[in-house]
UniProtKB/TrEMBL annotation:
Gene: thiO
GO cellular component: cytoplasm
Classification via SUPFAM superfamilies: FAD-linked reductases, C-terminal domain, FAD/NAD(P)-binding domain
Protein name: glycine oxidase
Domain of life: Bacteria
């Protein structure tokens, strides 16, 4: 199949669709190759937009996250206007309770993105129902969330269809045919496919397809519960971000709980230990959860790099661009990734931030991972 005028996006998950929509809005011809739409990490993440609650240290990664968070209101509004679908973006803020008083209650934060320390009395006034072990915590009013599983991914898929993006579902790229300088074609289960430019958004599977780019899976198990109908109002209206646990309420009463962090390759399925650890930590931070009916269990694979930072921009091949390795922040970084990569592919405009996330930062030893 020859789509020589098209930019081919390899990977049809949330990142691939975000890029497809942005490129198409800028007038590009785009084809998306999707092996299994429902397997992508965008379908399993909790949807926190938490560059501050995640305690990302000051530097390029925090700047990338803050810039992307600031794009979210306009980005989701644009998707809703194109599709008429709700993205469920909710700037609800994130509360980070702690069980021990930290050495300092002052942390670095941008002037327009406060991090507010709440002592035990204040945090319980702010959020009733916290566990007795909670001694205080930080309130991050600018952090937010989006319901990626049920809304955002569907809006992106609908937007790409409405804008005329060509999506080939069930197409698995088995090999990238290249010479020393460029990609020549893609070998797929449906034959060879060629294009003008290629963008790799293959998530945790990237290392299998292109070993020069060190991305590997880290598994996460998750579950959801539902606020009983006996409650007159939502008992939790902001995200709780605790020690190895997060509790993410949705406006309709669903509450998402996650997530384990496991180096087990692509080992699928749930484990009793994983589920038990999530339930114990969730009930400790918000005891009301013990009586909420369980709705669903699931798992997924985070695309991880050796330094836990994404790989964005140029690749070993001049016509292949990388947008992989977003680890725990794929949902957060979707708008900024789409913006920066689109500018690079269409205009050869390289944002200064991209140099911090280039694939060349890994040594030869690491490239053999």
């Amino acid at each position: 199949m020859n789509v020589s005028d098209d930019i081919i996006i390899i990977g049809g998950g949330l990142m691939g669709l975000s890029l497809a929509v942005e490129l198409k809005l800028r007038g590009a011809n785009v084809t998306v190759l999707s092996r299994n739409f429902h397997e992508a990490a965008g379908h399993v993440a909790a949807g926190m937009l938490a560059p501050q609650a995640e305690a990302i240290p000051p530097g390029p990664m925090l700047e990338l996250g803050l810039r992307s968070r600031s794009l979210y209101p306009q980005w989701t509004q644009k998707l809703e206007q194109i599709t008429g679908l709700d993205t469920s973006y909710w700037p609800c803020g994130i509360l980070a309770p702690v069980y021990e008083i930290p050495d300092t209650t002052k942390i670095d934060h941008p002037a327009d993105s406060p991090a507010i320390w709440l002592d035990q009395q204040a945090i319980n006034q702010h959020q009733p129902g916290l566990g007795a072990d909670v001694v205080g915590g930080w309130w991050f009013p600018q952090d937010a969330q989006v319901d990626n599983r049920r809304h955002l991914v569907k809006a992106l898929q609908a937007a790409s269809e409405k804008l005329g993006v060509k999506t080939l579902e069930g197409v698995e790229v088995q090999d990238i045919i290249r010479n020393s300088k460029a990609v020549e074609a893609l070998e797929t289960n449906r034959g060879k496919i060629t294009g003008s430019q290629y963008i790799l958004t293959t998530g945790a599977w990237t290392g299998q397809l292109l070993p020069q780019v060190p991305v590997y899976p880290r598994k996460g198990q998750m579950l959801s519960v539902k606020v009983p109908e006996s409650f007159d109002s939502l008992p939790l209206k902001q995200v709780l971000f605790g020690t190895e646990i997060y509790v993410v309420p949705r406006r309709d009463g669903l509450i998402v709980i996650g997530a384990t962090l496991e180096d087990v390759g692509f080992n699928v399925g749930l484990t009793p230990d994983g589920v038990q650890s999530l339930l114990w930590r969730a009930i400790r931070i918000f005891p009301l959860l013990r009586d909420f009916p369980i709705q669903e269990f699931w798992w997924g694979f985070r695309p991880t790099t050796p330094d836990l930072l994404p790989i964005l921009g140029t690749s070993p091949f001049e016509n292949l661009t990388l947008a992989v390795g977003h680890y725990r922040n794929g949902i957060l970084l979707a708008p900024i990734t789409a913006k920066l990569i689109t500018e690079w592919v269409l205009e050869q405009k390289s944002d200064p931030l991209l140099e911090y996330f280039c694939w060349e930062r890994f040594s030869t030893a690491q490239l053999q991972y």
